[in-house]
């Protein structure tokens, strides 16, 4: 009886603990929008890494050295790996494929450890994933989309350097650049085409803090001029990866606090507009993180000495193509570390997941940030943040969030432990998947919501750069032609609070014409080059009064 009383008291403590956290309580106001849906109580693994593919299936994986997962490999398969650190003969899966349309999942088999790795979808639609831990740190793995029993294909040591906590970005020529990783102050390309194979990047050494690093999983964005914006720790550069030269050095973000892992903030490249301008205005938004010293305080060896400092509640926004760029700071409704930032089809940024105190790492976070926040880039300064309805599931370290084609956001993961822990811990290992539906999916918007009827970019057809594109759509209610736009969104590879390769382009709208009752045509122009939009698959949306249609897959190809 004493044992059960102790357990009851422990969970009462947890409820009280969450209830007293400022700004992180489960509060639902009548004015707040959005809704949550539990899709799967358990997919058998932690959704530590996620990537949506062009067949509306999501590849998900965690790591092989957690021990056994909660889902078996199919057909009696087992992985026999003498290098494995925990279980050398393992018949459980550490990756799954989630079918969005059917709300079903199936196990996949990875051969080596994919923990804290990175990846990108290449122009043919396949996911090329790189690096990991231990025996997986130099490996390259490919997943080709299919509708049946495809699985991971591993190609051995395809990398020249160990890549753990690195960042990948797809380039205009279809190759990937892999930047950084633990104790890797360099970058390389995949596939390999020339030598040397590894190139020095001193910026990563300069941003490395001695005890906490604070420069892992750097935020990387392809700029409209073909160079890379790279943010690590608390500062950024514009980098010409072809010549290995720094083109521009940006001022440190005000306050000087770190925003990179393990003081993990998040970042997005804000929607690219006016794509035919001589100089395109490109802006980067960096939100959240942890104050200097947070990681050291949270990881003290003696539990009595551990302190979980309040996370940062600021965002920095910078126009990276201006001659004298400066950070403009804004304050979020709540502090947040380990949050995820996702571009929605209407150009609004969703900030979701994470914690209010502490840092990333094992057991280092406190005060779950249950309330997502919308950031309206075009809003008036001081009124750009909009809190929306909360989840009831803490999504702490090792959580993920990605945009789906239907406009929902898939949310999963959370495991701040070195193994699967489900009982008597503050934040149990979370194997569930949820969907968050932003306010634009509320039923009150159904008369304004566009529905794509047909397009010259229907699935299976390529569209070229600088090409006229015609889309026919339906709106039941009154159409405001001057509030119709077409956007293209690149699906993200999401892990550790950063959505790699994620970008949104607002296409140039030439005219909207009436066809018949409730049916309209819109003509737009696709991006002019791979600097703006690297070749590959995108989700295309019609947006009316900030309410997007369900997207269609299109393939942009040179």
Automatic annotation (TrEMBL):
Keyword field: Oxidoreductase, Secreted, Signal
Keyword Oxidoreductase set for record: yes
InterPro entries given in the database record: Glyoxal_oxidase_N, GO-like_E_set
UniProt key word Metal-binding: no
Signal peptide: 1-19
Galactose oxidase-like Early set domain location: 449-555
Source domain of life: Eukaryota
Pfam families given in the database record: Glyoxal_oxid_N (PF07250), GO-like_E_set (PF09118)
One MF annotation (Gene Ontology) recorded for this entry: oxidoreductase activity
Record domain Glyoxal oxidase N-terminal: where: 48-440
GO cellular component, one term: extracellular space
Compartmental location: Secreted
Protein name in UniProt: Aldehyde oxidase GLOX
Organism: Populus tomentosa
């Amino acid at each position: 009886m004493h044992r059960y009383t102790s357990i009851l008291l422990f969970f009462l403590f947890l409820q009280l603990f969450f209830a007293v956290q400022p700004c992180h309580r489960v509060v639902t106001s009548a004015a707040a929008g959005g809704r949550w849906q539990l899709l799967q109580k358990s997919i058998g693994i932690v959704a530590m890494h996620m990537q949506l593919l062009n067949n509306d299936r999501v590849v998900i994986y965690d790591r092989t050295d957690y021990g056994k997962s909660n889902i078996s490999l199919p057909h009696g398969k087992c992985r026999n790996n003498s290098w494995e650190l925990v279980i050398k003969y393992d018949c459980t899966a550490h990756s799954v494929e989630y079918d969005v349309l059917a709300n079903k999942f199936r196990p996949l088999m990875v051969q080596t450890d994919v923990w804290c790795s990175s990846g990108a979808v290449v122009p043919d639609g396949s996911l090329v994933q790189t690096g990991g831990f231990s025996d997986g740190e130099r490996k390259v793995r490919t997943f080709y989309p299919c509708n049946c029993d495809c699985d991971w294909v591993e190609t051995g040591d395809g990398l020249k350097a160990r890549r753990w906590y690195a960042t990948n970005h797809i380039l205009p020529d279809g190759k990937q650049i892999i930047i950084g990783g633990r104790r890797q102050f360099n970058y390389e390309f995949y596939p390999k085409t020339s030598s040397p194979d590894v190139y020095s990047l001193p910026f990563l050494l300069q941003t490395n803090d001695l005890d906490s690093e604070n420069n892992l999983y750097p935020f990387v964005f392809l700029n409209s001029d073909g160079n890379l914006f790279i943010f690590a720790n608390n500062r950024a550069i514009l980098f010409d990866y072809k010549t290995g030269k720094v083109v521009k050095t940006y001022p440190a973000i005000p306050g000087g606090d770190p925003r990179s892992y393990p003081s993990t903030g998040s970042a997005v490249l804000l929607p690219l507009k006016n794509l035919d301008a001589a100089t395109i205005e490109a802006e980067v938004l960096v939100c959240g993180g942890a104050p200097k010293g947070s990681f050291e305080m949270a990881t003290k060896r003696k539990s009595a000495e551990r302190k979980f400092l309040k996370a940062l509640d600021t965002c920095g926004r910078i126009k990276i193509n201006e001659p004298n760029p400066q950070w403009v700071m804004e304050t979020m409704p709540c502090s947040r570390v380990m949050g995820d930032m996702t571009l929605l089809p209407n150009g609004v940024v969703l900030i979701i997941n994470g914690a209010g105190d502490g840092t990333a790492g094992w057991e280092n976070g406190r005060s779950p940030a249950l309330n997502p926040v919308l950031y309206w880039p075009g809003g008036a300064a001081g009124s750009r943040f909009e809190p929306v309805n909360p989840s009831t599931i803490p999504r702490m370290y090792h959580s993920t969030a990605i945009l789906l084609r239907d406009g929902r956001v898939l949310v999963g993961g959370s495991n701040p432990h070195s193994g699967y822990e489900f009982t008597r811990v503050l934040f149990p290992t979370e194997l569930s998947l949820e969907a968050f539906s932003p306010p634009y999916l509320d039923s009150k918007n159904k008369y304004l919501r566009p529905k794509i009827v047909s397009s010259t970019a229907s699935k299976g057809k390529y569209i070229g750069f600088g090409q006229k594109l015609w889309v026919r759509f339906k709106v039941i209610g009154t159409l405001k032609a001057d509030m119709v736009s077409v956007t293209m969104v690149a699906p993200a590879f999401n892990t550790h609070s950063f959505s790699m390769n994620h970008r949104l382009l607002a296409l140039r709208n030439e005219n909207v014409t009436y066809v018949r009752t409730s049916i309209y045509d819109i003509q737009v122009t696709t991006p002019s080059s791979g600097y703006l939009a690297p070749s590959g698959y995108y989700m295309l949306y019609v947006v009316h009064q900030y309410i997007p249609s369900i997207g269609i897959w299109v393939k942009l190809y040179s």
